[in-house]
Amino acid sequence: MKLLICFSAMLLCAMTLAQAAEINLTEAMQKSLAANKALDSTSDATFTLTNKTGQERVRKTMGATKLQANGEDNMRMTRFVAPADVKGTVSLLIEHSAGEDDMWIYLPALKKVRRLVSGNKRDSFVGTDFSYGDVIGHKVSDWNYKLLREEVADGEACYVIEATPKSDEVRGSSGYGKRVVWLRKDNFFAIKGDMWDESGQPLKTFHLTELQEVDAARHKWQAMRLESKNLQSGHQTVIRFENFKANQKVRDEFFTTRYMEKE
Fold first, then answer.
1. What is the pLDDT of residues 147-202, one digit of tens each?
2. Among 76, 124, 159, 234, which one is least packed by beta carbons within 10 Å?
3. Which CATH code for domain 29-260?
């Protein structure tokens, strides 16, 4: 009887530790999702898209972000200002932690705002190697997490965490069968990641560098260089932020479909 009681206690302890580890990983991913969410921001950016033969396309944007009243969900507007073939294209992404995110795109040639559905999250974000889901952020509650190891990346101590979708719906909408991310231990910022497609084949990588603490009071960070490579197509995207400024009292009107239609 004593042996049975001892074994039961050990089993309960193991279950408790496993549950604690899962909660900690979930909290780490929540902190990662919030790591770059300043109260608001404005910036310019240069998008350089390179195909497998080395041909480049360069695009210029201006953008803004703003936290919603709940202090958790972000809004992001990106307006393309050059070259002429994409000038006036606007993307608006509004996060909803308790429901489906809102995604719109305005195409000046059609003079129409089009609302995107959740299935579009796997699609390329305006021709880049980042998906809409990558940009707006993957909902933490949609994924299972496993701590693979701890290691140094880019000179920083990191947690290496594997994320797998909890359902076929999440797998389909994200386009990922698995994600592995490197989170810095000091600020939980995701500095790199590997993604696999739904069939389990390596799909793409991302690498975020040149981190700056843009909001010291709230400990919010921004990578000034973002790179993503599609391992299957050989295409890659580099995004460089310029004139990034946080806490600028950005107006709410920037995050409306009416503003998207302004030339």
1. 999 999 999 999 999 999 999 999 999 999 999 999 999 999 999 999 999 999 99
2. 234
3. 2.50.20.10
